[in-house]
Amino acid sequence: MIGNAVLELVEDRARASVGRWEQRSLGVVRAEDAAEFARAAGESAPRLLDPGRDDFAVHPMYVVSLLRGAPGADAAEFRPDGMYRDEVPGTDGLDVRLMAGGQDVRWVGEVRAGDLIELRRALTAVERKGVGEGFLLLTMEKVYGAARGALVEVTERFIVR
Questions:
Q1: Which of 29-38, 82-91, 123-132 bottoms out in mean pLDDT, i.e. has the lowest?
Q2: Which of 92, 103, 137, 150 has a CA-to-CA distance to 7 between 20 and 30 Å?
Q3: For 85-101, what is the mean pLDDT?
Q4: For 151, left (φ over 0), alpha (ψ -120 to 50), or beta?
Q5: Cβ atoms of 9 and 94 closer than 8 Å
Q6: Which of 27, 52, 45 is closest to 111 using CA atoms?
Q7: What is the per-residue burial (b if ≥16 Cβ within 10 Å, else e) of 37-48?
Q8: Contacts for 119 with CB less than 8 Å, ≥ 6 apart
Q9: 119: how many CB neighbours lie within 10 A of its CB?
């Protein structure tokens, strides 16, 4: 467990960013990368694995797996636990434990090879849970879109202790 003062600092920082939408480009969906993702996910459907097929489709979870655009991040962009420093609001530079707290994914469009993916995200809730020091539950809303509109909407929760 981290100290109560650190948890309060995370809570204050996180609350200050609630509702502040940010946007970043995640780059262009490459068919080869989407097919590799499908292979790694254990898919066997040829339409998800072979970009040369006329009916090739991007795996529905591929775009949700994207955190950044082109590979090659600088080591300074990462926390000691391997996550990006700015991935969980309020925690940058602090020695906290982060855990996934659940994810709700809603598909509202079809991701296609060649789509330029833009991510919009905002922290929407900060809740103190548990007794004593407890932990924080941070809720993030994300919208993955392309020029033709929204493709995937995600509600993601992070536990900070």
A1: 82-91
A2: 103
A3: 87
A4: alpha
A5: yes
A6: 27
A7: bbeeeeeeeeeb
A8: 23, 24, 25, 26, 66, 142, 143, 144, 145
A9: 20
